[in-house]
Specification:
GO cellular component, one term: dendrite
Shape: flat
CATH class of the largest domain: Mainly Beta
Protein name: CSTN2 protein
Subcellular location: Cell projection, Dendrite; Endomembrane system
Helix content: 10-25%
Main location: other
GO biological process, one term: positive regulation of synapse assembly
Length: about 750
């Protein structure tokens, strides 16, 4: 007999079926034994990659992690002759096409060893670089977006008028197809007449997905045609992706580098030189200034797209090595242990290492090679988010072009957010020095003991802890090392007067470091990607000089540092400097020993808790000295007043004592107790007067009082009544005199 199924079997629903078979004869008597029949359902073979995870997690600082550590290819026993696999890391939506360092262009050029003197035309808005304040900006990556309605004027003096025959223009650009059939020019950079005329001296613009550089030389002895317009036609100009462009000018030769690859112009047109004139020029970004041939000067030829890191370097061009460094990605695909790939595997990376192509004849070798493909991000603080992965494969069989179809792999790498560092600046925040030291040739060092320390706070997540117990997890505070990209020493209050004061730094201190510095009346700026230690060494050498200190008593400064172009900022460290003139120079000896360096709380892992002592520096300021002097004068005046009052009171008491000399023998407190009760009104006043007299009497009066007590004891019983009468008369006389004195 036959066993048939009535519906389709599915391996996913049930792998095996068991059927009991029993035989019956014509008398319906069944067989003595039944037979068990097992039906195994085989899975339908689907060619494709097996055992891979859709989500790959990446923690900053992990180095290189494998993407598919257990992957293998199922071919369903097909006769495979070769396999071609492409792994693509899609990062065009991250920053400028991939995760690159977000330092300023000047800092990156210094890091890559580029020639100095680059001028940033699209800097972050600040008090000194305010021409970009009105532009739409993405703060994280310093990207400026132009919507065809905006332009920026570069102030006079930022870029020299004469760029010489050698100069370099660098920029990041993201641009799409131009709107309209006959699109207008879209200006990236333009130097044109400010008024009267509309001559363009040099410009970089996009026109119909072509990049054009215009350079009109000034008239000289040779009045001849010269190369003036250089055209490049590239698909990348309008693909809405980020690309890095460098225009190297060695007149009459102009070379374009895009993403590190060299491109020669496909068209060069000549033009007459420009005749010299007295008309001033206006340099603009995002549009071109039309100063003539219109009723009112205005912007024209607006740019549509995004720009970043636009710089111009007069007098020098860049080398291929520097150009490759400037546009290098910090993330990409990698292969662990290239030696173990085997001879039968061919592979190829694109320049940015975002695409890897592998080809081989043996399936197992391809499996092993793909397991070694990894993702790496060398940034200490990478951009968090998703990186998409796509793996596409083509399989060829013997005698056939394509025998089986391999579905693509769509996965992604999740890059976690790095722990944010806390940058802390510490040091002596207040000191005083004699005026002579500020007036000396070397001046006074401002930050002799400055320290820059960075810490990160981490929270442990033990696996065995429950959710409600995680509130009591130990907190780890660790010190970490990373680079800085600028530190500013700012002058607080009025700017420095260049006629009498300045900040100084010997440039020999910058040698051997990736650092540069600029000085102005607003402060001193040190920039470049370098270690915190090198920044400390340079900051400790900055000096303040003041060769006319007569009208200056103090100066205040503020120090702040940055990592990743302001993404992580330090605390604002304030410093007050007092200038001691000759009148209070002696005070110097008393205050300098009080200067104590503020303590920095060193971060350690102490789950049980820790106690840290904090020592604050206390340094008298000029205001404190003035307060002390005022209080001293006030105390002196009060003391003098009290002394004069006591002296006057003693004169009053002396007059009163003269009237008492004749009755000293009768001056006894015991007698006042037994006097006539009719004198209640007078006795309280008498007691007060006698108590006041006792407070101010000297030793002589005490002796006289003692003798008076003895004589009064001998004659008390005999002359009691007489004493009362005489004492009453004496009191009236004394009260009258006392009232007149008061």
């Amino acid at each position: 007999g036959n066993i048939r199924n009535t519906e389709k079997l599915s391996y996913d629903k049930q792998h095996q079926y068991e059927i009991m078979v029993t035989a019956f004869d014509c008398g319906q008597k069944h067989a003595t034994e039944d037979v068990l029949v097992r039906v195994n359902v085989k899975p339908v073979c689907k060619p494709g990659w097996q055992d891979w995870d859709k989500r790959i997690e990446y923690k900053p600082g992990s180095g290189s992690i494998p993407l598919f550590p257990s992957i293998h290819l199922e071919t369903c026993d097909g006769p495979v002759s070769s396999i071609h696999t492409t792994i693509e890391l899609q990062t065009n939506y991250i920053g400028k096409g991939c995760d690159r360092e977000t330092y300023s262009e000047k800092s990156l050029q210094k890091l890559c060893g580029a020639s100095s003197g680059a001028i940033d035309l699209l800097p972050s808005p600040s008090t000194t670089t305010n021409w970009t304040a009105g532009l739409v900006m993405d703060n994280n990556d310093i990207i400026f977006k132009f919507d065809g309605k905006q332009g920026a004027k570069i102030p006079d003096g930022i870029v020299p008028k004469n760029l010489t025959d050698q100069f370099t223009i660098t920029l990041w650009m993201k641009h799409g197809p131009s709107p309209g059939l006959r699109a207008e020019k879209e200006t990236i950079l333009c130097n044109s007449d400010k008024t009267e005329m509309n001559r363009h001296h040099y410009a970089l613009y996009v026109h119909n997905c072509r990049l054009v550089f215009l350079l009109r030389k000034d008239f000289d002895q040779a009045d001849t045609f010269r190369p003036a317009e250089f055209h490049w036609k590239l698909d990348q100009i309008c693909d809405k992706e980020w690309h890095y462009y460098i225009v190297n000018v060695e007149f009459p030769v102009v070379t374009l580098y895009m993403d590190g690859t060299t491109y020669e112009p496909y068209l060069v047109t000549n033009d007459w030189p420009i005749h010299p004139s007295h008309i001033a020029m206006q340099l603009t970004v995002g549009a071109c200034w039309q100063g003539g041939e219109v009723t009112k000067p205005r912007f024209a030829q607006y740019f549509h797209g995004s720009l970043a890191s636009l710089t111009i370097r007069p007098g020098k061009i860049e080398s291929q090595k520097v150009i490759s460094c400037l546009q290098a990605c910090k993330e990409g695909l990698d292969i662990n242990s290239l030696e173990s790939l085997g001879q039968g595997i061919k592979y190829h990376f694109n320049p940015s290492q975002s695409v890897l192509v592998m080809e081989g004849d043996d399936i197992e070798n391809i499996n092993q090679a793909l397991r070694k493909v990894s993702y790496i991000n060398s940034r200490q603080f990478p951009t968090a988010g998703v990186r998409r992965l796509k793996v596409s494969s083509k399989v060829q069989c013997f005698g056939e072009d394509v025998c089986i179809n391999i579905p693509d792999i769509d996965a992604y790498v999740m890059v976690f957010q790095a722990n944010e560092p806390k940058i802390t600046i510490t040091g002596m925040d207040h000191f005083a020095r004699p005026a002579a030291q500020f007036e000396s040739e070397r001046g006074v060092i401002l930050l002799p003991d400055i320290r820059i320390v960075s810490t990160v706070t981490k929270m442990e997540h033990p696996v065995d802890l429950k959710e409600h117990d995680r509130a009591d997890k130990p907190v780890i505070v660790e010190e970490m090392l990373h680079n800085l990209d600028f530190c500013d020493v700012l002058v607080m209050g009025a700017e420095l007067d260049p006629e009498q004061e300045c900040l100084e730094l010997d440039h020999v201190e910058l040698q051997g470091k990736h650092l540069d510095a600029t000085n102005s009346t607003a402060g001193y700026s040190i920039y470049g990607v370098d270690s915190m230690f090198n920044y400390e060494q340079v900051l400790r050498q900055i000096r303040y000089r003041n060769w006319d200190t007569a009208a200056t008593f103090d100066r205040k400064f503020r120090v702040k540092c940055s990592e990743l172009n302001g993404r992580y900022m330090s605390n604002e460290f304030n410093l007050e400097v007092n200038i001691l003139h000759s009148s209070n120079s002696n005070f110097m000896d008393h205050v300098n020993h009080m200067i104590v360096q503020p303590q920095f709380l060193q971060s350690v892992h102490q789950p049980e808790g820790s106690v840290s002592a904090v020592h604050n520096s206390v340094v008298p300021s000029v205001a404190t000295i003035v307060i002390i002097i005022c209080v001293s004068i006030l105390i002196f005046v009060i003391t003098l007043g009290v002394y004069r009052i006591r002296t006057a009171h003693q004169h009053s008491s002396a007059d009163h004592d003269g009237s008492k000399d004749n009755e000293m023998d009768w001056d006894d407190s015991a007698l006042t107790i037994t006097v006539n009760p009719m004198e209640k009104y007078e006795k309280p006043h008498q007691i007060e007067e006698e108590s006041e007299e006792e407070d101010i009497e000297d030793e002589e009066e005490d002796t006289t009082s003692a003798e008076s007590d003895e004589s009064e004891e001998e004659e008390e019983e005999e002359e009691e009544e007489e004493v009362i009468v005489q004492k009453g008369d004496k009191q009236n006389a004394t009260r009258q005199a006392q009232l007149e004195w008061d």
